[in-house]
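User: I'm putting together a teaching handout on how sequence relates to shape, and I'd like one worked example. Could you take Transmembrane protein from Rhodococcus artemisiae, show the sequence you're using, and then write out its predicted structure as tokens right after it?

Assistant: Happy to. First the sequence, then the structure tokens directly below it.
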Amino acid sequence: MSLASSFAELVTANVPRGDALAQTTEVSTTGVRAWIEDNIVFTILVLIACVVLMGGLRGNFSKVVTVGGLSLIGMAYMGIATNPDAATGIGNWVLGLIGIQVA
């Protein structure tokens, strides 16, 4: 077989197009978000509880208040970030504080 006939066979062969390799399903992060909510959040809450309890046992109440308060702020942020309706509600509430009513 000559080089010319091999080249002619390659040119006339049916080559699959690139769209055959494209992904047909939609990519989303709902599985990752659900896993984080189910596993990581619980672990963080347990660690925060341990720190607060250990600080309380040692009598270091300023650390307990600081860690507890910052933890509540962080968990509130996590709750707002995982629920799109919560972010809209909080935005409307903040606007309501300065007298702007959103319908």
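A couple of points you could highlight for students: The radius of gyration is 29 Å. The chain has four helices and no strands.
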